[in-house]
Task: structure prediction
Amino acid sequence: MMIAKSSHNGEPGPLSRTTRPRAHHFRGSLGRFATGVAIVTFDGAPGVGGTSKRHGITVNSFTSVSMEPPLVLVSIARTTKAHDELPGRPFSVNILGAEQQQLALHFAGRPGPEPLWVEGGTAPRLSNVLAYFECKPWAAYDGGDHTLYLGEVVDFNYRNGDALAFANSSFTTIPESQLGMEDLL
Result:
């Protein structure tokens, strides 16, 4: 898969002393927007012996893009260890339930108990998540210090339960009574 480059020429460089406070304030301003918490899972490139390493990346930048074809987007930081293994690979987006904060931390670099995996038909996913979307790679775009990955959804499902959310640098819960509008459609 080719990653489309943006029209600007400059690569982001180290932050100067004068831009650090602005960047910190920008991040704080973005943090006021509550988001769900998801984990992108995929199998990496085969290594020695032909086996591939399983990866998971905690994200809060996830959105639907299109109903026809069904497309979703995740934004992955270029500094993420597994970033360079994702291009061209099928992936799953796992939406976490309120009780799955430990999973979010595990894949954000604070390892805990080994998660339970499900062998999806397209990509591996995590067991008992609130919702999942198995995706074929559709496109990837330069997003500054992130790469924006679009996936075509080939399988999905959800269960009942409260959602794990993130706002103001803290985990929180979105009660199930506030979720979904599928009954209205």
